[in-house]
Write a structure and sequence with these properties.
This protein is of the alpha/beta class. The chain has two domains: about 150 residues, Rossmann fold (3-Layer(aba) Sandwich), CATH 3.40.50.620; about 120 residues, HUPs (Rossmann fold). The protein is about 40% helix and about 20% strand. It is built from eleven helices and eleven strands. It has an eleven-stranded mixed β-sheet with strand order 3-4-2-1-5-6-11-10-7-8-9, with helices on both faces. Helix 8 links the parallel strand 8 and strand 9. Helix 4 runs parallel beside helix 5. The longest helix is centred in the N-terminal third of the chain and has 33 residues. The chain is globular. The protein starts with a strand and ends with a strand.
Length: about 290
């Protein structure tokens, strides 16, 4: 399926513009429409986080402060959007019509970002999200998990400060035979068909059975994608560490992999490769669940 609609959640914080720039870069490449989504918190919700026994005047002050902060974040987000569109030469449009050129729009709503991402994301062909530099950014983590788990759509996660100018020139596929990995390969097909280099990294994982890396290479050949394979053997480090080492050694600028192939319970007990990759990947990661 062609990628024609891209959703990129935003906030008005002074954080990296990398996700928006990546979305616009991909949008230009695919002649797609990019919707930048900014969700402001409802000032009334801020009252739920303050202590009991507050007077009505104090509550009004809290709400007024929350509204002012929300407006400032919105202004910064819109300014960043306009600057990014100018820098990437992408026209502003609501995306309602058919066009052979990339376009972008800015949507502002009030509520919980996770709720809007879950709803709008289901009708986007691709979601581009940022990765937090701090463990304290709970909202960004919640938005990313919602995009991965509740939309059924592929998600491109861009590290802070990462440039997307050469995204997809050399692609590494983390393959473990899972359904999620197969969905990720399918979602990445438009990138794979244009890549100069594709390497399938076969990751050994207990309890997973399915096609081998060699089978993936043969499958990609049917789509006129020339690829090679490499085994990632268990060593002193974790699966994620070994995988990222291989990504660096192959000079890949995009990693394609299935997201959360373990059950939630197993991830809580043993940890998960997806989380480790997202925390440490030096390149954008295209995920599918």
């Amino acid at each position: 399926m062609a990628t024609k609609t891209i959703l990129v959640p935003m906030s008005g914080l002074a954080s990296t513009p990398a996700p928006l720039d990546a979305a616009l870069t991909v949008g230009k490449r695919l002649s797609a429409h990019v919707e930048a989504l900014h969700v402001s918190i409802d000032p009334r919700d801020s009252v739920a986080y303050v202590g009991e026994g507050m007077t009505s005047a104090m509550i009004e002050d809290v709400m007024a402060s929350a509204e002012q902060e929300a407006n400032e974040r919105l202004a910064r987000a819109r300014q960043r959007f306009e600057a990014a569109c100018e820098a990437n030469a992408v026209a502003r449009s609501d995306g309602s019509g058919q066009s052979d050129d990339a376009s972008a729009s800015f949507t502002e709503v009030v509520g919980r970002e996770e709720d809007y991402v879950a709803s709008k994301g289901r009708l986007a062909d691709l979601i581009v999200a940022g990765r937090s530099e701090s463990d304290e950014d709970v909202s960004l983590s919640a938005t990313l998990e919602t995009a991965l788990m509740d939309t059924g759509r592929p998600v491109l996660v861009v590290p802070p400060g990462e440039s997307a100018d050469h995204l997809g020139t050399a692609i590494a596929i983390a393959w473990n035979g899972s359904v999620e990995a197969a969905r990720a390969v399918s979602a990445a097909m438009h990138f794979l068909c244009e890549a100069e280099k594709v390497i399938v990294l076969e990751v050994e994982e207990a309890g997973k059975h399915g096609p081998s890396a060699a089978d993936v290479v043969s499958y990609l050949a049917q789509h006129k994608v020339s690829a090679s394979s490499r085994d990632i053997r268990a060593s002193a480090g974790s699966v994620a560490e070994n995988l990222l080492t291989a990504v660096r050694e192959e000079n890949a600028d995009l990693l394609v992999m299935g997201a959360y192939t373990r059950s939630r319970l197993r991830r809580l007990i043993f940890g998960g490769v997806t989380g480790d990759i997202l925390d440490n990947a030096p390149v954008p990661v295209l995920l599918a669940h």
